[in-house]
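Supplementary material to the annual report.
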Amino acid sequence: MSETKTPLSPAALSRRSLLKAGLSAGTLAGTAVAARAAGDPLITEVQDWNRYLGDGVQARPYGTPSPYEAHVVRRDVEWLTAATESSVNFTPLHELDGIITPNGLCFERHHAGIADVDPAAHRLMINGLVDTPLVFTMEDLKRFPRENRLYFLECAANSGMEWRGSQLNGCQYTHGMVHCVMYTGVSLKLLLEEAGVKTSAKWVMPEGADASAMTRSIPLEKALDDCLVAFKMNGEALRPEQGYPLRLVVPGWEGNMWVKWLRRIEVGDEPWHQREETSKYTDLLANGKARRFTWVMDPKSVITSPSPQAPITHGKGPLVISGLAWSGNGRISRVDVSIDGGRNWTTARLDGPSLSKALHRFYLDIAWDGSPLLLQSRAMDEHGFYQPTKNELRAARGENSIYHNNGIQTWHVKADGTVENVEVS
Amino acid sequence: MSKFRDARVGSWRALARPLLTLSLPLILATGTALAGDPAAGEKVFKKCAACHAVGEGAKNKVGPELNELIGRTAGTLPDFKYSKAMIKAGGDGLVWTPETLATYLAKPKDMVPGTKMAFAGLKSDADLDNVIAYLAGFSAQAAPAPAPAPAAAPEPEQTRSDAAPDTTSAAPTPTASGHDGKVFGLGRKAEAEEIAAWDIDIRPDGTGLPVGRGTVSDGEVLFSENCAVCHGDFGEGVGRWPVLAGGQDTLTDERPEKTIGSYWPYLSTVYDYVRRAMPFGNARSLSDDDVYALTAYLLYLNDVVTDEEFELSNENFTEIRLPNEENFIADDRDAEGHDMATSAPCMESCKPGPVEITMHARILDVTPGSVDDDEAGGAGGVD
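Predicted assembly:
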């Protein structure tokens, strides 16, 4: 990986200096070793930041990451789509830890660009098979009882470029159409009850206010179960690219249904078969049939480090294998990790909160002997569903499904610590 | 596991599978081309109707109303805010006659540089003659051809809040009780006009279809002007923009081509989507009749209809079935068996020998800027 590294922090340098053998970080390691003889000048010499004053408060009224983190950004793949307004970029999973995705790094998927909506001009309408069709302002919505819930959102096409084989080198690109934030909003059930759902109702259809006027059919049962109409993410207002001022949250189900810039919810007795649930977001099988209404996101996991964009730079010795797991069915119950391409598995350690339909963080701490690895992870959820291999998925579905690829990912860690996306026998 | 996986949705009507031919049409004749035919001109005028009204009660819209246009000095309607260029042209003596209109409408910006009218111009002489004949029917000074019944110019479909964003305080006041909602008393009742403005969705059973009609021929013109820049003249797609036609019998191929004719299950989706979201970057700009015409043309490009004069309307819409309707099935992923109930995942010696690498990432560095080829071979896009 040739990504330019920003200057290392003192902490990183001192961490390196603890390692005595197998160092592969070249000049950095050499410097650390040489420096140790006379004492590390980063320690023995007074540093600028230790002598001079830094910026005062209000230098950054809205805080942004350190300049040393400037490489941690969403990235796109230009050849993938015809126009940036109808395209996608990817969360830099390899640089993140824990289970919360920072708002500015949540991947984007738009169908007609980022709508610029003044919240004072925003309306939410509920119409169709209801007793009283209603219109809410944002102010109205903020007077309903609120809930805070943490959910992952995964695009159904996440890993969609890998159906025919390993293609993109980095978990940002292979798995980066997922994020996980805490939403604050109102239960959709409350809003539907406010309008009064008629007994003949079976479906709802959210609609966006953007220039694609995004629409999807959702069974009423799901709408009344756990959907939220959200106006905050991670405590602050939704970001424009995530649907400011209002979006639908459809926990565990494919991201396309989480309609952004939500302006209307229609209640009906039949699905509408809109463009995004017929021509798109249907899963073509090898026999020419296509599955429709494949809403649930299957259990899935990926090792985020080491990975192609996050190679091992410290040589042999203690190695933290870290990754993410999630399932649209509920909690993750177990993640197994293999270092030999799936012959033998070890159950990894889940750390941090384990919440239904949220990202889970797992770790496997090993002593790396410097030999090549074929790293895999395999998630299982509380209902007993687990990740199949990619070949098992292909055997069941063919290679043209685009969506719902939850096959087990393999990273090839080479002796020099670099990592490549591969497939194995 | 989710119970929704098993949800059987709706009842699928029996398929009426239209006969398909395999070749795409290469040439499509334009509509009737009698010079100066006001009826034909009425169809051409649909291109103008987003901005101009004509006929009884016509008012200025984005452009000036066009009653009594023949004989009018350019730039002189008192209530319309013209460009300086148009006012100057009138001051210099430009009067609208069939001749001056023909020159202007062929390339407006050539004749009056600086005109506000964004329209690029009518390419076809027949269209020019016809639309001028149509407009002349609303001008007393013009030849006394019987004016066709002036159809009400379709209003641009625009949402109320898009047009005039209200502030909260400007929103309609609550009813006497202060509340319409049942439980919390929050929100207010939606007005019928508001629902009509936003609820434009169409279902496969035809629910929601507006009254209207449009022919394949009209659709071809509209498609060429509004759609072909991305989708190609025959729906073949330009670059990575969606292919709309062809691809029949490719769904089991290595590279299936999923088009309206080869893949989409319902025609209602075409009408609904074009009306709500197309043209890309100018949504809600087409009239309902335009969308019928475009839908008809897309049926023609996909050989679902073969008559260039075929007219699609709200009355015959649900008679049309798309060929692939029967090939959509319910979500049966759970039957694939990747679950503990079927078999527990193996933990040890799961493969007979050392594992071999069978494939490497084909793109070794996808950092933006370093991708040097257009990987059209990639396994599908994001949508």
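Residues 1-29 of chain A have pLDDT under 50 and may be disordered.
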